[in-house]
Design a protein that fits this description.
The protein has 411 residues and is an all-beta fold. 1% of the residues lie in helices and 46% in strands. The protein is built from 1 helix and 32 strands. A hairpin with a 2-residue loop joins strand 4 and strand 5 (94-99).
Length: 411
């Protein structure tokens, strides 16, 4: 989901998949609705609508991400004043220095499958209750809040509900009788950082077979059903070559579906979690036909607290429950980082260890054994606010500044 840039402070100017699960193997399934978001929407008018839910014209599956901003950061005051750094930002070509207010603008990113209930609280505020029972008070941060929801009610058909009319959304597993009328996109995305395989969300939006790829050809504007496309190949910054399943080929330009203004290409890759491929990194996607829709709601078990051993540069260790970046504390939360134009959002439940390399990067080892070098984001660079260790067997806690961290090994 696209996020909006918070302006407060300078206004004066993705294991994610359980062991043995394979989307490719699941493609021989019956095409049931397991992977689709499903639940009941209650309105302020007292009505209830139950069925498969499409969030705006974007998210449709349990592994899709709900984004917002956290309004409360209970551990942020553990960071010593001298550890808080002045930040720089570029806005419309202007260079601005400012003191970051750590009390706002921390992202909340969760898979829909980890959420039990969402309650709009007026305006852009919302309360989100996780399967663990923990409730987060959120405010704005993306167009997930304010989106119009479409519910495929089996008795009424498609019902569209405006956000301001919603009282509560309660999620549940889709019943066996549910039969979606659409298919999910799956394919292989070739990039400078390798090939990613999994469910695809094109332009951070199109994820169903009936969603449309828009572009201009020599014959005029075309809107092509994604499910009828065999491949899309980048032809430069301004166009793409599109091959249909019937063999016809087009070169399209002029929209953010087919040029460098694309909002990113999501791939739900079981090896890494969710990756977002930039246009610079993208080379080609080849779509595969299949009826898989992803893991069901029951497959997302209630998360666990993060526990780890933290070793500092002097070899001293602390073991216990940790608050990573003075923010993330549960296994559903995401470790974010970038490498060669690909942005990784990895649930902590998939992470075995994080080793600080330097101010600009960290080495991450996943429980699958795969190694990544991640850069640029706050989680893996000097912008990290540090790690708080709530030591086991005592009421004491120990703060480790990020520039003192050597390695974090998760239980």
């Amino acid at each position: 989901m696209k996020r909006t840039m918070p302006l407060v402070g300078f206004a004066a100017m993705l294991l994610l998949f359980g062991a043995g699960y394979s989307p490719a193997a699941a493609s021989s399934g019956s095409g049931k609705a397991e992977g689709f978001i499903y639940g009941t929407v209650e309105t302020e008018g007292g009505h209830r609508y139950t069925g498969i839910i499409r969030w705006g014209d974007e998210e449709a599956f349990w592994d899709d991400l709900f984004n917002s901003d956290k309004t409360k950061l209970p551990y942020i005051d553990r960071q010593p004043e001298d550890q808080r750094k002045r930040r720089d930002v570029h806005v419309l070509g202007f260079h601005i220095g400012y003191d970051w207010d750590e009390g706002c603008c921390r992202q909340f990113v969760a898979r829909f499958g980890d959420i039990a209930e969402i309650r709009p609280e007026g305006g852009e505020k919302v309360d989100v209750r996780m399967k663990t029972g923990t409730t987060y008070h959120l405010d704005d941060g993306s167009n997930d809040i304010g989106a119009e929801l479409q519910i495929e009610d089996p008795e009424l058909g498609a019902v569209n509900i405006e956000w301001k009319r919603i009282e509560r959304i309660t999620f549940a597993a889709a019943p066996g009788s549910a039969r979606p009328e659409d298919t999910r996109l799956y394919g292989e995305v070739a990039t400078e950082d390798g090939v990613f395989r999994g469910f695809v969300q094109w332009d951070s939006q199109e994820c169903l077979g009936t969603d449309k790829l828009d572009g201009y050809s020599e014959d005029g504007k075309l809107s092509l059903a994604m499910g009828r496309i065999r491949s899309i190949e980048k032809k430069g910054r301004s166009s793409s070559g599109v091959e249909m399943r019937d063999g016809r080929k087009f070169e399209l330009h002029g929209t953010n579906d087919v040029d460098s203004s694309i909002r990113g290409i999501f791939v739900e890759d079981e090896r890494y979690g969710r990756v977002k491929v930039s246009w610079d990194a993208f080379r080609r996607v080849d779509f595969n036909e299949g009826s898989a829709t992803g893991r069901g709601y029951a497959d997302y078990k209630p998360a666990k607290e993060l526990h780890a051993k933290v070793t500092d540069k002097d070899g001293k260790t602390w073991k216990g429950r940790i608050i990573f970046d003075l923010d993330e504390s549960e296994s559903w939360e995401m470790l974010d980082g970038k490498h060669r134009g690909v942005e990784y959002s990895i649930p902590f439940e998939m992470v075995r260890s994080i080793e600080r390399v330097d101010d600009d990067s960290s080495a991450v080892t996943l429980k699958t054994g795969r190694d990544l070098k991640l850069e640029e984001t706050q989680d893996v660079t000097e912008r990290n606010a540090g790690v708080l260790v709530l030591q086991e067997g005592s009421a004491s806690e120990h703060y480790v500044a990020w520039d003192r961290v050597d390695k974090i090994e998760f239980d």
